[in-house]
Amino acid sequence: MKRLTSVFLIFLIITFAFALANSSYAPKPQTPKLIDIPGDAGTNVLLQWRHFETVPGIRYDILRSEDGKNFEVITPLQTKTITYEPQDQPENDVSDLGYFLVLVPQENDLPIARVIKATEENRDSIISAGGKKILRVELGVPPLEEMEKLPNKFALGDFYRVIPDEEIANRPQPMTVPQKLFDALGIKIPSLGDVSIELTPKAEELEFVRKGKRILAAGEDNMPLTLKYGKQIVSFVTEDARYTVKSDNIQFLDRKSDKRDMEAGKHYIYKVRLYQKDIPIKKIYVDSDTAGITPQDEPPVVPDKIEALYDRKSNTAVIHINQTSGLSAFFDNKTYTIFKTTAEDTACERGSEIRKVSASIRAVILKDVDSTDVLYIVVEDEGGQTTKTGLIPLTPVELEKISLPPNLRVRDVENDRGQQIAIRWDPPTLAVGYSVEDVAPKMMQEKVASKNIFYLPTEKGGTLFVAEDPSQVPDGARKVLNLSYTVPGGKKVLKITYQMWTNSEDKALYGEFSLDGKDKIDKDNTGELQFRNIAEGEYSLIGHIIKSSGSRLKNPEANIDMKIDATHIHSVPIDVPPYIYYIYRGTDAEDLSTFEYVGKVGADAREFKDIFDDYKTAHHKYYYIVQAIGPDGAVAQSEPLGPVEGISNWFNTSKLVIFFGVLVFVGVALFFIYHAKRGKQFYIRPIAGIVHIDEALGRATEMGKPIVYITGLGYIDDIATLSSITILGRVARKAAEYQCRIFVPCYTPLVMIVAQETVRNAFLDAGRPDLYNEEDVYYIAAQQFAYAAAVSGLMIREKSAANFFMGRFYAESLILAETGASTGAIQVAGTDDMTQLPFFITACDYTLIGEELYAASAYLSNDPMQRGSLKAQDFLKAIEMILLVVGSLAATAGMWWFTNAFRALGGD
Amino acid sequence: MFWKKKVPLIIVFIMGFVMALQYFIPSDFSQKFYDTYLDWGIVIGIFGGVLGYFSFFRVHIHKVTKKAPNWQFSLISILCSLLMVVAALLGGRGTGSLFMQLFLYTSAAINATVFSLLAFYISSAAYRAFRARSTQAAALLLAAVIMMLGRVPIGDSISFWTRWGLPSINEISQWILNVPNLAAKRAIILGVGLGSLLMSLKIILGIERTYLGSE
User: Fold this and answer.
1) Residue of A521, B36, B149, B195 with fewest CB within 10 Å of its CB?
2) Tally of CB atoms within 10 A around A240
3) With pLDDT > 90 as the criterion, what percentage of chain A qualifies?
4) Does residue A192 sit in the same domain as residue A264?
5) CATH, residue A551
6) SS3 for A130-178, per residue?
7) What backbone phi and psi angles, to 5 degrees, belong to A759?
8) Which of residues 129-168 of A touch B (CB under 8 A)?
9) Interface of A with B in 701-760 (CB under 8 A)
10) Mean per-residue pLDDT for A355-369?
């Protein structure tokens, strides 16, 4: 051990010395550009900078300081992983194309790169302007040793190396057009859907390709073709430097949070730190220059989309208020106060307040206004600053009446940790759509080049026409060369798609349908059912929602009776009404300004779950308001619902069946263990694999060769590994009694420690501690195939007489078992892994299948309690078998109540 | 004996019982307790890693110093292991680092090589398993042939009987997988479920204590 420690110490000292002597280079990162987010409380600063593709950095740290001296790391940001690859391919050599790189300087930013093709006339002026001849372009990042040959400089630009391919350009080009274009042409195509056509190449593409190999800036020529034939350039290589142009914009928002403070009016200094390497004993980084900013608490930003409607039918007004700005999440708007005034009050000063609401409200209903009134809104932010909108006239309209969903209610969500509140409503609805499809449509192909059909793209999508003289077709028209389309194959299938618009309280399980008396149910709730070999005609479809109790939901919306037209191939989608629901949460039912928007759902929802990020915030009393919004802007608003509080539940009722199962199981097990302890003898059926463990040990002893025991690749918390360890204890004890050497190579360190202890004690119990060698129970590697190779080597070298494979195994199982078989060893395997069992059965003499592995230790032991537990297992298996048979019979007879009963109790 | 046997058994009993109950308790306290428990597992696992590394060194240094048969392989193992440590300490583990290059171009390649041997092992195992010595083995062989044909395009091409509405080889192979095979698998899975539950119960109650080192 002393020698081992010395080796380690020397090794660590050498490593530290090397690391400290090692230095490396990373270019200075760009100084971050700082942006004070407008309209906020002065608590958000956006940092932006560029990261160039060739910069060998692994991450950025963002640092902030208040005094310019003491910087704290705010956050690390990982950079994109670089893939280094050689860039010396011949096609990257552009030295013969005569391109020059000119850098146009910019104030406070990197220069802009321009690529100019030199001619005899402009060559001298380009060189005098500092132009550098481009020798090579790079489309990726070259290896580091190549990078270090030239200084790396940076410029802004987006360039592409274009290498045209005439063969690709000349290929007929595919396109899909609607069948009706052929109908308009008078050509009957019996296609089931759109028609694929192949066209002659576009003239502009042929022209693009003929221009040959070149470098293009983004947007300089046809961009789709530039992308089709080009690749983005990462760097230009000139004689004196590498100019990298490809970069990513990195952004980070520094904002006030629980972890960090930020105050309006306070000066903050930022810099970014680029790490080239991050090794345990030395960090190699380069800092950018610093930049400072003083974030301000700006006045609130008024909503940029306000729509005020006056409904002539109900004599009420509705205002829809929306912030569409991408920065609206940072605004600290607190309340909207709505005033009504007259059109003459252009300064918005003489209005009377009619409503004050939270700034997150999306729609407000105003009853005390007239169609001639004019409104304005005063927006107040968290700091008390205000901003007014301009005058908002009411637009007179006639809105369709919209209703709130029936039976709106708010509930604490069951079986959670108290961080969810649900708003639920009715009615549970079965929504059905269908499609009549062809089972095996046939693909047809047709050559039509001789028919002189041309395709002309238009603003509305394109048109087809026939022209005998190709020279007379308009510009942009292309000849149709080939057609391909599908025609009906004969048999039809009817696909029913359905949705159950229900909430958790409905306990809806699946849909049950009947098509002209032919019943089908969707037990797995896939939302789709098929009726095959449908003959043409009209069918009657009846559908129901089945609850977990097995009964149907009673309300008419949850039961449909509709006609299906199966005379032709077509589809009818599920019809979702076009209204939506907004949900608001508040703390005071009387004060609308406390309500804030929490989410929206479509008309196909019957429930909204308000999920709190922090479970503690759910432990307050909350009220909820639901707004139904119609497609024309009509609004219906509920009264405040609640109060309700998120409750942390102490029992998950959805696991009731499992709980009862465990209770029954434990009860039965304890019963048998108790009787076994009192001396009752149980008959245990023999298991071949276990019986032959002793035989294998005896054989190894007779041959004077060792045994190899593999505990598998499982971790110590695997039941299979624990079982393996228990069997190892018995095997090791027998091995000690027979004076047989046992090797236990381990895959994980924790298993090794337990295995060492188990084998040591087994030898001790057998009275032969002198035979125990700790180095025979050892750790190999936590890599699957390294382990497999090492164990295979051990079996071949030691010519083991018996091999045991017990525990959790993966792909290495067959490698181990076949190697063992090739040495002629007797092999006993045991695993609960379904995928590896066939391999062991094939390659081993005896295999413990599934639960036999767990039973082995009890079987080997003469402990009555162990044997009692084994009996309990067999007894419970018998109960399982009875349930399986009864369940199968009940399901076959259509009595789903049996399986549904388990679901009803929460056994999903 | 008290510290080595009794205390671990008490800990296993309490923790086993508590964690079994935790499965049924969704409350916040229960969830936090579970998260902490998992963190503990990770921490203990890290210490186990150190012990494993020591075991590795001890076994191989012993072989080298004693000049045991094939001791050269042990020396290579030690040197390679140290090389990876040095490479990680000096150059980090990022993309393009020496450590990553060693991992990708030696370790991963060797792993793939050993894995690819599996194809040959499967062939030899299949040869042994599919000899039709008995009725059962013949049934196994027949099922295997159908499965193999069902997985390649020729299986459907030679299914000439489909014109009479009979299932193709592909459909038969799917049926074998989905019906008899799945039924057998589920039987084993149910047994495994029961067995693991009973094993857990035996460990919690202290009936099964071999994992502690002895009975």
Assistant:
1) B36
2) 10
3) 37
4) no
5) 2.60.40.10
6) CCEECCEEECCECCHHHHCCCCEEECECCEEEECCCHHHHHCCEEEEEC
7) -70, -40
8) 144
9) 717, 719-720, 722-723, 725-726, 728-730, 746, 748-750, 752-754, 757-758, 760
10) 88
- Rounded Cα distance between A223 and A217, Å, is 9
Tell if the CB–CB gap between B211 and A784 is shorter than 8 Å: no
CB atoms within 10 A of CB A503: 21
Look up tokens 């079965």; give the residue.
A430
Residue A59 to residue A56: CA distance in whole angstroms: 9
Q: Which chain B residues have a beta carbon less than 8 Å from that of A650? A: 25, 27
Give chain A's end-to-end CA distance (angstroms, integer). Answer: 56
Q: How far is A641 from chain B (nearest CA, A)?
A: 25
Which strand (E) or helix (H) includes residue A395? strand A395-397
Q: Which residues of A191-213 are buried (b: 16+ CB within 10 A; e: fewer)?
A: beeebbbbbbbbeebeebbeeee
Least confident span in A67-71, A206-210, A771-775, B45-49? B45-49
Amino acid at A828: V
Please give the angle made by the CA atoms of B16, B21 and B24, to the nearest 5 degrees: 140
Q: Which residues touch A217 (CB under 8 Å, ≥6 apart)?
A: A114, A115, A157, A158, A159, A160
SS3 label, residue A241? coil
Tokens of A240: 């004196």
Residues A150 and A167 reside in one and the same domain: yes
Note whether A702 and A902 are within 8 A (CB).
no
Q: Contact B213/A758, CB-based, under 8 Å?
A: yes
Q: What pLDDT, on a 0 to 100 scale, did the predictor assign at position A421?
A: 93
Q: Classify strands A846-849 and A333-341 as parallel, antiparallel or unpaired.
A: unpaired
Of the candidates B70, B185, B203, the beta carbon closest to that of A722 is on B203
| A161 and A68 together in one domain | no
Tally of CA atoms within 13 A in the half-sphere of B214 that contains its CB:
13
Comparing CA positions, the residue from B19, B14, B15, B42 lying closest to residue B30 is B19
Domain endpoint, select from A570, A588, A603 = A570
The whole-number pLDDT of residue A278 equals: 58
The C-alpha of A67 sits at a distance from chain B's nearest C-alpha, in angstroms, of 33
CA distances (Å), origin A906, targets A107, A506, A526 = 68, 14, 19
Domain that holds residue A39: 26-82+249-293
**Mean of the pLDDT values across residues A470-475?**
79
Interatomic CA distance for residues A428 and A498, integer angstroms: 13
| DSSP class per residue in A46-78 | EEEEEEETT---SEEEEEEESSSS--EEEEEEE
Question: What span, in angstroms and rounded, lies between the C-alpha atoms of A365 and B132?
Answer: 82
pLDDT classification of A279: cutoffs 50, 70, 90: low
Mean pLDDT of chain A: 87
Identify whether residues A113 and A129 lie together within a single domain: yes
For residue B83, give the 3-state DSSP assignment.
helix
> Which among A401, A371, A379, A353 is positioned nearest to A309, based on CA atoms?
A371
Whether residue A347 is predicted with pLDDT greater than 80 in this model: the reply is yes
Residue from A247, A402, A378 nearest A316 by CA: A402
Contact status, residue A175 vs residue A455, Cβ threshold 8 Å: yes
Q: What is the ipTM of this complex?
A: 0.88
Residue A908 pLDDT: 45
Q: Evaluate whether residue A16 is within a structural domain.
A: no
Window 508-547 of A, Cβ < 8 Å to B: none
